[in-house]
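During the second half of the funding period, the structural biology subgroup turned its attention to how the target accommodates small molecules. The most pressing case was zinc ion, which had performed well in the primary screen but for which no bound structure existed. We therefore specified the complex as follows and requested a full 3D prediction, including the ligand pose.
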Amino acid sequence: MFRVFKKIHKKWHTSISQVPLRRVHRKRVGAFRHNRARYDSDKEIARIRVHELLTQWGPVIGVRWKRVSIKAHRSRWGSCSAAGNLNFNFRIIDLSAPLAEYVVVHELCHLRHLDHSSAFWAAVAQVMPDYNTRRAALSRWTRLHALHPNPPPVA
Ligand SMILES: [Zn+2]
């Protein structure tokens, strides 16, 4: 079940072009080796931001999560496991508040529906009626700035 879910989930979250990812990945690994301190501090900022949003939205959606991890995913903003653990991309710190909020709400709603069924999207829409606009904006952002630690500055 979890496997199937991960597969579907990955499909959705990797709507970015697959082509530059390998190149980006090499750059990413290099950047981490030379700037580990910067990565660690970005991760801590992300952790604080994610926790603020979880604390704000968890009770609204009526869910509780277990462990939260902040990682450097290559192609996802977040994920949710069947065990109730949440993962978020540390690059969430580069998103505008409405988009970061959407990422967190999306993963929190997965604690209720572990798929992208219509019930899942209905749960998202219930707490965030404009989620579709945010979802489209997030897609655009992701296409413009591939998920790696040293993207071009946001205009
Ligand atoms: Zn999802």
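Two results from this model are relevant to the next phase. The chain has one domain: 35-145. The pocket of zinc ion is lined by residues 9, 12, 106, 110, 116 (CB under 6 Å).
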